[in-house]
Amino acid sequence: MNSGAASHKIVAVITLDEYFAGYEDSREIFNVLKALIEAIGTAEVRVSKSQVAFRRRIGFAWVWIPGKYLQGKTSPLVLTVSLPARDASPRWKEVVEPAPGRYIHHLELYSVGGLDAEVSEWLRRAWKEAG
Question: Is this prediction's pTM over 0.70?
Answer without folding.
Answer: yes
